[in-house]
Amino acid sequence: MLVFLCAYASEAQVLKHDTVTVRFYQSVSTISPALKENARALDSIVDIVSLYAQDPRFRMEVRGWASPEGASLFNSSLSLDRAEAILDYVERKTGVRPRASSLTVSGMGIDWKGLEESMMRDGNIPYADEALRIIRDVPVWQTENGVLVGSRKKSLMDLRGGEVFEHLMYNHFSPLRRAEIILTYIPEPALVQVGDLRQDVPVPVPEMHPTVLPEHIPIHRLALKTNLLTDALLMPSLEVEWLIRKNWSLAAHGNVAWWSRDSEHRYYQLAAIYPEARWWFKTKGPWHGHYLGIFAGGTWYDLENGGRGYKGEGGFVGLSYGYMFPVSRSLSFEVGIGAGYLYTEYEEYLPVPYMGGTHYVYQQTSRMNYLGPLKLKFSFVWRLWDADWNRHNRLARKGGEI
User: Fold this and answer.
1) Tens-place pLDDT, residues 211-239
2) Lowest-confidence range among 1-10, 174-183, 284-293, 335-344?
3) Residue 277 CB neighbour total at 10 angstroms
4) Greatest Cα pair distance in the chain
5) InterPro entries this protein is in (predicted)?
């Protein structure tokens, strides 16, 4: 009996299964074609999607990964952002988007398995056996009675005073910062002919990788700041900022200078308080990058330098821009400017000697509308309260991967 196989020819070349990798710089989800072999990989993805995107037999899975530095919640978000960045890039280049039923986009979080495999190929890792035992045996999250008490990442960072983690960071983390694009084309059924009988036989479909979403552990992070510029002007400042989401934070500012020398009729009394909402962009990690903000508040003052005095209050609203950068595991510096509108109403007075003392004689009430710069800052920042680490293991300066 003669048996032979006849396969249908598809309209385009049949792609059965292919995986393409795109690399990312640390802490970012922006695609960089110049990095490694990204340009070639991106071109191949664009070519394939252009041909197959609307074909019901085409499947596309995009999985984002991150390296272990930084807070785990942000790494989970970062890995998903990297996967979505690939999809956005392809859509911009091709003008088409794969059908929803054939598309899977996943954020895989930290690639512990990839790190383990990379370590197995390196014979120069200090205390490699201890590090591998942590990766294999220590849970990602360690809890007692529902309270987070440790993590795999913390144990790895603490190993031998951080010597092992530093070696891994500089020699093994880079390949983990990536997105994998799995492209599958399910061919049409083959025709099997047995004698005069022909029938369709489905071709086995390549196995697709399951989608695994990492567990999100809530992390609340706080920063305390003081503006060194106003501090130098003897107007101490305090700012509290709360990172409520990856790209959003809320802050409350306060400044006060309440100095007086009655004998010389000198008053330097000034206070201001205002909240601010910020949107962070082009970030390299939590508290590391640019932001735009909107603020509004009030001020009170009494200013006199031995002559005419001004006492009043006002309100203001404005926009701000700033940039924050880390200098250690828990310390940063921030530079920023703000401009907007200020309205103030104040009383003018004169100090007048009277019967061995001084009376302050009212002169007039004035009002002022001002549009222009409202604040300038160079702040010292203390970052604290990170649920992933204890107080002695804050987010590493180079680990702000989000």
Assistant:
1) 333 333 334 478 999 999 999 999 999 99
2) 1-10
3) 16
4) 131
5) DUF3575 (IPR021958), OmpA-like_sf (IPR036737)
- Band of residue 357 on the pLDDT scale cut at 50, 70, 90: low
What are the backbone angles phi and psi of residue 168, rounded to the nearest 5°?
A: -65, -40
* Average pLDDT of span 177-205: 64
pLDDT > 70 in the chain, percent: 81
Q: pLDDT at position 80, please? A: 92
Which residue has 């002919």 as its token pair? 193
CA distances from 117 to 114, 120, 169 (A): 5, 5, 15
Q: How far apart are CA 46 and CA 20, in angstroms?
A: 11
β-strands 190-194, 237-245 pairing: unpaired
State the pTM of this model.
0.49
pLDDT for 297-347, tens place per residue?
Answer: 999 999 998 788 999 999 999 999 999 988 877 888 999 999 999 999 999
- Asked if 286 and 402 touch (Cβ cutoff 8 Å), the reply is yes
Tell me the average pLDDT of the chain. 81
Cβ neighbours for 356, distance < 8 A, ≥ 6 positions apart: none
CA distance 123 to 121: 6
CA pair distance 84, 91, nearest whole angstrom: 11
Q: What pLDDT, on a 0 to 100 scale, did the predictor assign at position 272?
A: 95
- 128-137 vs 163-171: helix axis angle to the nearest 10? 80
Strand order in the sheet with 197-201: 3-6, 190-194, 197-201
